[in-house]
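Sequence only, no structure available. Ideas?
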Amino acid sequence: MPFSDPDRARDYQREYRRTRRAGDDCTTPCTTPVPLSFRLKTAADVLALLEEQVAAVRGEEDAGTLEKARVVGYLAGIALKAIEAGNLAARIEMLEMVLKQRNGDGRR
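Reply:
I predicted one. Tokens follow.
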């Protein structure tokens, strides 16, 4: 991240190196650190988060009906992509298992 001010660049680099030494390879000093328990690793994690967010949006009393519909529609589109990704991952795993069994545990 280029900074025109050398002091800001030095501060950023110091924080960046500190974050890396701490073992966090996912965040930079300019982003909010995400707790490890919250990080999404599978399509099922994404779907669980989306389900939670849809419930939060539907329960929001200050939001209008049109705004809720727009947000829920957007989240539903993302959920469909996550479902497709989960299905593809399951199919790939199944194919890998079959190929390993055919080749004698993956050997040629």
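The radius of gyration is 22 Å.
Hope that gets you unstuck.
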